[in-house]
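quick one, 290 residues, struct below
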Amino acid sequence: MKREKIIRPKPFKIDSPVIFEGDSLHILTRIPSESVQCVVTSPPYWGLRDYGVVGQIGLETSLHQFINKLVAIFSEVKRVLKPDGILWLNIGDGYTSGNRGYRAPDKKNPARAMSIRPDTPEGLKPKDLLGIPWRLAFALQDDGWYLRSDIVWNKPNAMPESVKDRPIRSHEYLFMLTKSEKYYYNHEVVKEQGANGKLRSRRSVWDINTQAFPGAHFATFPPSLIEPCVLASTRQGDFVLDPFFGSGTVGVVCQIHDRPYVGIELHSEYVAMAAERLRVLHDNIIRIAI
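---
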């Protein structure tokens, strides 16, 4: 019998803002435990977009595989999060494909066209709402996370849909999860103005417009959605992690508020886009091959 000693790679030294290019799960295993105070992220949605990159999340053949993959990633996120840290998770929903295997082009949103699309999950019917946000939230709860709040992100400028047999969707969910029963949450810095003009504690419906970013073929994570998450759950100097960094909007918010960030992104074009926005030097971009 051949025996081989497997040596775990040394953890990365995280002492300044950095962007990692590579697979989220692989890179997360090398980030030191309890090294970030806050995580703000929006993973790819299932069956909604083909990013054309090997190893992408969102085109798994089954919804079960998609949920399991995200649970595994967020299990590593929980390890790198400090005991009093918070995870803010934005995730969108979708409808069953009816086993069409593709999505037709849309004049208003060309990026929606797809040549491949997962089949309708077992137990669901054509035209069923998938319920992905709550399926993922409950799976994370089962994996040990504390599910502390479901925030409704209301989009006043939501993109119109051509459907006429149901209400037009204009919201997504933002879940607040923690790894401990007690955690750092500064409610004072994120108070909002009430109907009487006085400040009140922030409520669970946030009216925030979507925001396009030039060069990206998708609506990016709007800074106004990220900002209260970062301010409420960090102090100046605390590290903020986004394991699905995209065009780097979480990093932009962190720069404004003097919080160092750790971004992880698989797609090289998005890494370049984020680096340009953040004016990141090459020394602060680390490419990791599996």
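The chain has a mean pLDDT of 87.
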